[in-house]
Amino acid sequence: MLRIGDPARIGRRDFLQIGGLALGGLSLSSLFTQAGVPLSQAGKPVTDKAVVFLFLHGGPSQFETFDPKMTAPAEIRSATGEIPTSIPGVTFGSSFPKLAKMADRLAIVRSYVPGDANHDIKPIVSKDGFSANLGSAYASVAGGNDPSSGMPTNVVLFPRSVDPNAGVEQAGFGKFISNGPFAASAAPFQPDGGGSLRKDMKLNLSLDRLDDRRALLNGFDQLKRGMESEAEAMETSRQKAFSILLGGVGEAFDLGKEDEKTVERYDTSKLFNVEKIDKKWNNHKHYADNARTLGKLLLLARRVVERGAGFVTVTTNFVWDMHADNNNATMTEGMSYMAPSLDHAVSVFLDDLRARGMEDKVLLVVCGEMGRTPRINQRGGRDHWGNLGPLLLAGGGLPQGVVIGKSSANGGDPNSDPVRIPNLIGTIAHTMFDVGKLRVTRGVSREVMTMADYTPIQGLHG
Hints:
This protein is of the alpha/beta class.
């Protein structure tokens, strides 16, 4: 646990009483010896690539997203119609005009089989042998923090990460912050002012309370000013460590440090008036949270991977469950609430990565826990379906402008070799890890080796 005393009187011994910093289990000794050295060059069997996993909790429909099936009967085909894409002969649901224009930069999987129709958080928290966020597997190999920046290597971003007024994350179907069999230092770092941030860090500052992330950042600033004289006396490596702990990490999670024009470009809150969301649906607050936060969540994801995070989970609240019952809207109405934010946020994120030269260094994965039934129900919604679901990947050096697999005529089953969760995990593992080096590295867990042994998605890897 991090314990820092009175900023005006702190000495080197107090500063170094850290052991394992709660910001992902940072060891100061590793910072002193490896500051500025990328993980891939510091003897770690990892690549220089990161993964951002955008999990669409609730189970999005394959029809209204990327496989509209407009030649099927009315009760099957996309309720929102279709739109042509930049890939000849390929259409998306009409709610995604921006993604359709950049389809030649995407990989769409139309034969993805989630495996069951249960509300849970597969595949982001693996159910195959260990119940842990995939980022925890990464952090168990890479270490809890990037040695050059101090950034936690495994981060999870909920709506409250960017909006303290958003609802709490859905935890009824699994824990996104689970580290399973891996050490506590591999658990995802949750920067929302609650969770691990306040539980694992104790800052004895002259603040009445650290009520939220803003107060924590202010505390960092105060502490940094109070220690300037001490920092001047430290040797270069300790100054680097000091800067890491009290500078870059805190600022990375503060969107106030981002260029205003960039924040405006990502902002999804102005795409439509959330007051128009019908409050008869019990999920209406979640729909509004998604609209207000999704763009900024992906901006925050870009900021942390730019500073050394290797795996970032981004999740909306529970909003993609479109049964048209008391909780959830119909397909057409629900997509009008949800699709504009997803279409805009993912498009801006990918453009931003390209502009920053990060496109091949960051793999974006977008899916939910399941898909939706081929037949629209009598209320205008679709029910749970585990035989097929939507999957989008982009970046990470993978092929662009490809459609992997085919679905059956009714869009309910694969009509080619199925892509299953282990295949998706295999693609993620081959992106994050230097698999050849991983196999000869001592101390790598059985669970990580299982991930590395999964066959990646054919057509994206050889």
